[in-house]
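User: Here's a chain of 476 residues. Predict its fold as C-alpha cells.
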Amino acid sequence: MPLVEALRDYSERQPAYFCVPGHRFGRGISRELTHGRDKAFLRFDLTEGTGLDDLHQPSGVIKEAQELMAQLFGVRQSFFLVNGSTCGNEAMVLSSVSAGDKIIVPRNVHKSVLSGLILSGATPVYIMPEWLDKWNIWGGLSPIKIRDLLSQQPDIKGVLMVSPSYYGIVDNVEQISRICHELGRLCMVDEAHGAHLYFSDKLPKGALEQGADMCVQSFHKVTGSLTQSSVLHVKSNKIDEVVLAENLQMLQTSSPSYLLMASLDAARYELASEGLQMCDEALELSNYARSEIDKIIGIDCLSREIVGQYSIDDIDLTKLVITAMDIGLSGFELKDILIKDYNVEVELADHHNVLAVLTFANTKAEVSRLVSALADIAKSRAKVGYHTVMQILPLPKMQLTPREAHFAKKERISWQKAVGEVAGEAIIPYPPGIPVVYQGEVINQEIWDYVERYRKIGCHFHGISDEKLTTIKIIK
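Assistant: Prediction complete.
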C-alpha cells in the first residue's frame, strides 16, 4: 500500500507542520465531531507534503498506487477520483466526444452524464432500456437497437451505458462492446455499483472483462473505501490518456483528500488479497436472506428468473430488491415501517420496491433482523394484491442540445401553460428518477398529462426549481 505507507511514515515523523489542512494531524478537529474518541485516522488527512506525491501530476506513491490498481483490474491505467464517480462520468464524456459529436446515452443514466454533455457540447442520442412491469424497474439495453442506431447514424462516436444498475441489473456489455468495436465506436460504462464483480465467478462479469473501453467504479459503494472515493479505469488504446488526465484536472478539486486516496489504496489491497473471500461472504449472506424471504407469504425478492429477458444478461445477487406490493405496501411505506418500527435501514425505496445492499461487512445478525422484520410485517397484513404499473412515455423531441439549453435565456411561466413549450429545466419524478423531459426538450400534451398526474398526488420531483411545479422555466 504505497500511499498508505507513505502517509503513515510521514505522520510518525511528526514534523513541525505549517501546511494545510489546519487541524494539524487531528489536534485541531472539533471535539463536537470526535467526542473525545480516537482521532488517529486523521493523521492521514494531509496535503502534498514531501514524499506524498501530487494527484494531478503523480510521479511517486500515488502513481505507484494507481499502477497497482490498474494491475489488479487488468487495465492500461487507473485514475483515483476524489470527486466521486460524478467527475469520472463527466471525464468519460469530455474525453470521448466534443461539441457537435453524438453519443448514445440510455435514459436512466446518472445525471452527471448530462453534466458531461453540457460541458462538452455533444448531442445525446437517447435510448430507452427495457422495462420490467412486474417490478417497475429498468431492465437492460437491447444490443440490436444499439447496432441499429450505430448503423443508421455513422456520426455517433460511442455508447455510454449503466451496468450494473442500482438494482443490480447487468447488461450484455460483451455483445454491445463487440458491436461498438466492429463499427469503430467506443463502449463506456458507468459501473459505479460493480467494482466487486471481478473477484468471484459466482458474480456477473465486470464491464472491463466484457470488453468495455473504460469504466467508472464507485469503490466506496461496496468495496470498503470512504464515501466519495472512486476509480476511472482505461483499458482501450483508443482513449487519449493525456487528454483524460487534463480533463480530470479540470473536474477534480485542486486539494484532493489524502484520506480518500489512502482508502482507495487500502481497499485495493484488501480486494487483491481477500477479494474472493469478501465476495463469498456477501453472497452467503445474500443467499441466506433470499431463502428466508422466499418463505414469507406476500413478500417477494428479485431473482435470476428474469435473466435472459428484457435484455438482462445477469443480476448481482448481493442486491436484494424486495417488494411487499402483494400485502398492499408500496416501497415507500415498507421502507418507512422498517426504519421506524424495526430500526432496519435500506438503501432506497421506489413505488414498488425497497433495495438492500449486502457487502462482506454485513453480519448474519443484521440480515436476520431484516428477514424477521419482513416476516413480522407480512403477518400483520392480509394479502391484497395491490399493484400500480407505471406508464413509460416515448422520448420527447429534443429542440436544443443540453449545452444549448443550459445557456439559453429562460423565463418562468405557469405550469398550466407549459404544453408546447421547450423545457428550461428537467422534470424528473422521483422515484424512479428517470427524466420525463430534459431541458431543451418539448413538453407535449402527453408529457404534460403524465406529469400533472404526479403533481396532483404530491410526487417529489428532481430537476425543477419550483418544488410544487406551479411554475416552470421554459426557453424563450
